[in-house]
Every structure is written in structure tokens, then in C-alpha cells.
Amino acid sequence: MFNIFKKKPIPGKKIIIKLSGLHCSSCAMSIDNALEEVEGVYEASTSYSKAETSVRFDPQKTNLQALKSAIQGAGYQVI
Q1: Can you tell me whether residue 26 is helix, strand or coil?
Q2: Closest to 67 measured CA to CA, from 52, 49, 3, 7
Q3: Which residues are 47's β-sheet partners?
Q4: Is domain 13-78 in CATH 3.40.50.720, yes or no?
Q5: Which residue ranges make up each domain of the chain?
Q6: Which of 5, 12, 46, 48 could form a disulfide with 31 if both were Cys (CB 3.0 to 4.6 A apart)?
Q7: Phi and psi based region of residue 72 (left: phi greater than 0; alpha: psi -120 to 50; beta: remaining)
Q8: pTM of the complete model
Q9: What are the C-alpha distances in Å from 14 to residues 9, 17, 76?
């Protein structure tokens, strides 16, 4: 028997980036939106309470510097 509800793994490389300058959960949403606009980003999930973002991306299409630039462009700092 097989599980038809099993999720497929999301492709790409996953990294955690520590942040500063977040003041509320809307800040986290702004960072997610900025990161998801970067070509090659599959998923971004930012935690206001942890002051970090988890990003899954295709390293053939983007890199850490591009992710940092997107975060800084949205008005936040990378630690």
C-alpha cells in the first residue's frame, strides 16, 4: 500500500539566515516577499520571533549574495 498524501521534497539547497531590524510579523512577510521575487528561490519562511529566515533555492540560479541583497533591499540587516 502506498501513501498518496506523502509530500514530495522541495528541491534545492536550504539555508538559514540570521536577521536584525525586524519589528513585527509584517516585517517577516516583507522579507519573504522580497526573497520570493529572486529568481531561483523556491520557498522563503521568515520567523519574526527567531529573527531568521529559512530559504530554499536553486544554487544554479541564485546565490547567498543575491539573497542578502534582497533582504537588505527590503530594509533589513543580515547578521
Answers
A1: helix
A2: 52
A3: 52
A4: no
A5: 13-78
A6: 46
A7: alpha
A8: 0.86
A9: 12, 10, 20
